[in-house]
Structure formats: C-alpha cells, structure tokens
Design a protein that fits this description.
The protein has a five-stranded parallel sheet, sandwiched between helices. The two termini are 20 Å apart. 37% of the residues are buried. It is built from nine helices and five strands, in the order βαβααβααβααβαα. The chain is an alpha/beta fold. It has one domain: 3-Layer(aba) Sandwich (Rossmann fold). Helix content is 49%, strand content 12%.
Length: 227
C-alpha cells in the first residue's frame, strides 16, 4: 500500500523517534477496538505508546465530550468545542509526549472535524483554515482511515443504542443517508487530505485487521527512519 508523504512534521522540538498516528473513520467501524489492540501490540513489542481519544483524554476534554455527544449543538458551537478540546489535548499531552520516544495513537483527530463539521455542512475550507491558523495544533504524522460497509456500521450502532452504551450519542440516531454520506467522505479522503494517509478495511477478522494496521505503521517512512 502506498502512503503519501506530503507535509510530514519535522519539528526540531520533537524526539526523532516519536510518531503521532490518527485512527479515523465513520461511527461504528471499530476504531476504538483497533486502537486498544494496537496499543497492546506495541506495549508487548517493547515500545512506549499512549492512546488518546477525541474529544476527551483530559478532565476538561471529557466534559466537552459529554456535552458534544449528549445533543446536537449549533454548528459554530460544535466547531469551537472540538477545537478547544484539540488545542488543550495537544498542549497537555501530545506536544510533551512527542518530545519522547513514544507512539501516540489517537482515536479521531482533525479529519473527523473536516468531515462532520466541514464536508457535511459545506464549510470544509472554513474548518480547514481554522485549524491551519492555530499555532498550538499539531497535525498527525499518519492518518489511517478505517472502513466497513455502511450497513454493518449501522447494525453496530443499533446494538450500541440497545445496550444503552455510554458511547451511544445523537449521531448514532441519524439517518442512513447521513451515515452513507459520512462513509463516502471518508472513503474519498485521499482526494482532499494532503498529508500521509492509508486506508484499512475492518470488515474481516480482528487479527487480520490488526496485522495490516501494524504493517501500515511499520512501512510508514517516518517509522522506518526511526528503527
């Protein structure tokens, strides 16, 4: 699998063997499960690794997450809440961690904002420029977009709602058309995302998905440079 290498971060304040990876994709594809298993794999391999979640991963971020997922807020409010969480998360966790020899696995990052608050609302360029203007924001070195057929994702979301899962939210209850459009935007991400990106099919046994995810990360030029 070819991975675009445009705009890889080369900040001198970073440890040369740090890497920041975002795991992206629509709701219900299995991103969180993948992140958890990747973390376990790298720990067992003797690597320093942390996993973060957007929004969340800090006390204030967790509060922002609860607010954002509880009900559908006005679009401008959504954008500012996500950015506030991201700036805080990067200042408190991402930037300090990148100064160490560590892998950061992020369950969602800026690509999700560009899809949900940008492409789905016709405000893509505004959301993109908003992030580019934030000095504190750090772009992921590599983004892995996870996919499954939309019908399978919808079934998983339905099960999540039936279990009264804490992760169930207003997005889960959106229409099939809404989720189909979300899936399409992620599938076409390489057409509008100009940074390193790879796609990962999660519609198969977890072991196979995990094996390919590890291979993608290890083949990423930034990773090989740090071996």
């Amino acid at each position: 699998m070819e991975i675009s290498e445009n705009s890889i971060s080369t900040s001198t304040s970073r440890h040369p063997e740090s890497v920041y990876i975002s795991i992206e994709g629509p709701d219900g594809v299995g991103k969180s499960t993948l992140v958890n298993h990747l973390k376990e794999y790298f720990i067992e391999s003797g690597k320093n690794v942390i996993a973060i979640k957007e929004p969340g991963s800090t006390p204030i971020g967790s509060l922002i997450r609860e607010i954002l997922l509880k009900e559908k807020l006005p679009l401008d409010t959504q954008i500012e809440y996500f950015i506030a969480n991201r700036v805080l998360l990067h200042a408190l966790i991402v930037r300090p961690t990148l100064k160490k020899k560590t892998i950061i696995l992020s369950d969602r990052c800026v690509m999700s904002s560009l899809v949900y608050q940008g492409l789905m609302t016709g405000r893509f360029h505004e959301v993109m420029e908003r992030h580019k203007s934030i000095e504190e924001f750090i772009w992921p070195d590599l983004t892995i977009v996870c996919t499954v057929p939309v019908e399978i994702a919808m079934k998983r979301l339905g099960k999540r709602q039936n279990k009264d899962d804490n992760e169930s939210n207003w997005i889960d209850q959106e229409s099939l058309e809404f989720h189909t459009n979300i899936h399409q935007h992620f599938i076409e991400a390489d057409q509008w995302w100009d940074r390193p990106i790879a796609f990962l099919d999660l519609n198969r046994p977890l072991e196979e998905s995990l094996e390919e995810a590890v291979r993608i990360i290890q083949s990423f030029s930034g990773w090989k440079r740090n071996r």
